[in-house]
Design goal:
alpha+beta; 2 domains; Four Helix Bundle (Hemerythrin (Met), subunit A); Immunoglobulin-like; 6-stranded antiparallel sheet; 3-stranded mixed sheet; 309 residues
Amino acid sequence: MKWTRVCLILCLGTNSVLAQVLFTSKVDSLKMLIGDQQALEFTVTSPAGINPADIHTEFVDTCSFLEIINQSTWTRTEENQKTIQLKTIRFGIFDEGHFVIPACYTLVGNDTLWTYPIPIDVRGIEPDSTGLMPIKGIIREKTSWTDYMIYILGTLAVILVYILYRLYKKQQAKKVKSTELPPPVKLLPHEIALQKLTVLKQNRLWEQGEVKEFHVQLTYILREYLENRFLIPALESTTVEIERDVKRLGLSQDQNVQIHNLLHVADWVKFARGNPEENANSLAIDQAITLVQQTQPQIVSPLTNEIKS
């Protein structure tokens, strides 16, 4: 099959300098066979001396259908008084259907440049149309006792296993039967979230200089809880989409504000390299624990008619 290389480019800007900055993304082809691999390439071209503040491809990592094989680091070259930054991600898709690689963005001053989403059709492997060669007849040879050796050994092995089994059961009958272990208890979403938040609070990553990693883990636990508790796609949604879905849940104004603050502070730290005060980090983990405790489902006792959290 002959593949056609396809390039999708998005240029955004409101002034003469921004209009010269290009943020592009391209793949080898918009069509591929299931299980095949191809490259996703991001390129930022800007005038010499202008360097985008940050380039975000995190949205690609959240695509559940996209299997990332490997990816390069951002490389930077100078050519014809232009700065060119390049990153290549090699990926594969192992499901059949129509998929869309989401848009990514970079920051230039106070402006944002986005790439276009990239649609990809994944097809299954078509069966071979050439057919099979005719089956030849079986050529039989004379048999000997060695031809039945595998059956003899198999029979002896079965007899030996049966004898060992009977001896084992006889010994077990003399012992007291051990009590069966209870089935593992399946934790509820709020129980899982509170356990993870407790461990994260005890680790105190921000005191070790890992502020960004702390907020990455904090927002992942919060997104996971919102998705499992309220059945919204929080793990694959942006902050704006999560806030939109949360407003439909009927939570209190204070709870909506807490979710807003936790997500936006984390975005500020991850994407704008913000550095909140130390007490702000400990306050954020406490707010997350309080939010989970306040929004966990309430259980009504059938005997006392009392509501238990």
